């Protein structure tokens, strides 16, 4: 049973590390703030959760398990808020490519225009 647990732990930690690596490469390679923000939040959080699950599996029965669980919960709760705030600041400072937007709802809000849409 110990061998199976070690294999599961290794797979979780390695897959989380690969996701974190791809997130880091995306942050460096993507051209604009919104793309970088996507790379910094989505795969980074999933990679961290996988690494924490691997550590959780390895440290079964240890008192530090609850600290690992708290790190995971706080990461999942704060990452969307941080991404939203960074996106708003990038939009206000005009550091986004306008071609990415199909609908620019923030521009309508800035002008005071409110459209009632019936989709």
From TrEMBL:
Keyword hit for Acyltransferase: no
Residue ranges crossing the lipid bilayer per the database entry: 6-28, 65-91
Alphabetical keyword list: Membrane, Transmembrane, Transmembrane helix
Pfam families: PhaG_MnhG_YufB
InterPro entries xref list: PhaG_MnhG_YufB (IPR005133)
Family classification: Belongs to the CPA3 antiporters (TC 2.A.63) subunit G family.
Name assigned to this protein: Monovalent cation/H(+) antiporter subunit G
